[in-house]
Amino acid sequence: KVPSKVPSKVPSKVPSKVPSPVDTCCPVNTETWMSFESELFVGKIVCRFKGIGCPANPAAVKTKEDFFKTQKRCTFQVLVQGRFKERVRASEIQTGGEFGKPFQDVPPHYLIKAGCKFFQALTPGLEIDLLCDEPYYMALLGGTVTTLAIDETEDKAADPLSDVAEDNGRIFGGEGYSVSRRSRTLGNPDTAAEHWYNTSDVYTFDYFQSVLLFDEYCLDIGIVKLRLDRHLNGNPICIMAKHVDGRYVYNFEIFHECLLSKSDQAPPGYGAKT
After folding, report:
1. pLDDT of the chain along its 274 residues, tens only?
2. What kind and span of H or E run contains 98?
3. 3-state helix, strand, coil in the chain (%, to 5)
């Protein structure tokens, strides 16, 4: 505990050393998880990205290509599992993307504004601005995540390396909702406010889809692949969730070499020129 005479701006804990890359970088395609803890959450993360290998250590790659063709039929999966550290309303936890610099080479502004309005009409509570100096898009976590599973204890929780099935009954008083009904209920701020994430249950948030290719850092829309580095201006895509008050549940940035020349976080020799 910090003595009362110490100014509140002084941190109560000072890291003894800078964490190593091994401790701060998530393993990908290793069929293992990494433990983490934030202000609001303690848990583990599993990452599987199609096409990602490890030339320096090929034996470390355990995820088979068949996983992306049969089990999930996706191009990437990020699964987060754990407990909240305080009870929060489902209407207070958002997911989406945040970017520290403005996008570049964007389409005409009127097209972007029209697209944003279209998606806001489809998604109640969506907050989006892709034309400002720090672009963002945010929607409620419970209505956006692909799969939501909730278990009473860690012993009963789904194996994060398995094919986790939707199991959301505990947040709805025991009645399991379909994925579409869960998405509508927890995606609308008015109805999501009636439900809570507690501190005892174990939550599994599973993100996966088949459009984003992290090995090429592009969107594959079937007829064409759209390079993201042309527009992101060095900003990485992230898998994140945060409280509306600004505290993070988790935030994992996904970098690619194509971003480094414009990134403020790049290692020496790669970073953005000033």
Report:
1. 333 333 333 344 445 555 565 567 899 999 999 999 999 999 999 999 999 988 888 888 999 989 998 777 899 999 999 999 999 999 999 999 999 999 999 889 999 899 889 888 878 889 999 999 999 999 999 999 999 999 999 999 999 999 999 999 999 999 999 999 999 999 999 999 999 999 999 999 999 988 899 999 998 888 888 899 999 999 999 999 999 999 999 999 999 999 999 988 888 777 665 5
2. strand 93-98
3. 25, 30, 50
CB atoms within 10 A of CB 160: 19
User: With contact defined as beta carbons under 8 Å apart, do 76 and 120 qualify?
Assistant: no
- 79/41 Cα distance (integer angstroms): 14
Nearest to 241 by CA among 99, 93, 78, 142: 93
